[in-house]
């Protein structure tokens, strides 16, 4: 667990440093289309926290500016939930890592000088033979500049026999198309 905390702390420190260097408020003009590539990390919550220790992944997002305050989004990518070692010291076992392909649509509402509230919904596909599909709900709070977008989100994947959740950090580099 200490290694995970160190990794997350290093990422957050780097992002804060970069945000200070890139302080230009988000201005999304009506009709503007942007693309962002993101690193995703998260800590599993609920029942999934018993079997998985960390989620790592990457996503790509297309954003369309409706006006200066509202942006529509389409996001897809890949999440890998890393399995914990379970059992006893004499009989340890690991469940296979869980790979998820999220496909989400959503919106960002900018409420103050680059700060936004966002919501996404969609489908998650388990990337295994016979893998199931889950419904995704993902609210977030974040800050965006012209190049950098950082947000904290809660992501809930619902459906089937097992539900998954995570509290995640989204770090993206974006550019105008």
Gap between N and C termini: 40 Å
Helix content: 10-25%
Strand order of the largest sheet: 1-2-3-6-7-8-9-10
Instruction: Provide the succession of SSEs.
Output: HEEEEEEEEEE
Estimated radius of gyration: 17 Å
Count of folded domains: 1
Overall spatial form: elongated
CATH class category: Mainly Beta
The main β sheet shows up as:
8 strands, antiparallel, barrel
Strand content: over 45%
CATH-assigned fold name: Porin
- Counting DSSP H or I runs of 4 or more residues, the number of helices is 1
Structural class: mainly beta
Q: Mean of the pLDDT scores?
A: 85
- Tally the beta strands: 10
Q: How does CATH name the architecture? A: Beta Barrel
Query: Unreliable stretches, pLDDT < 50, 5 or more residues?
Result: 15-24
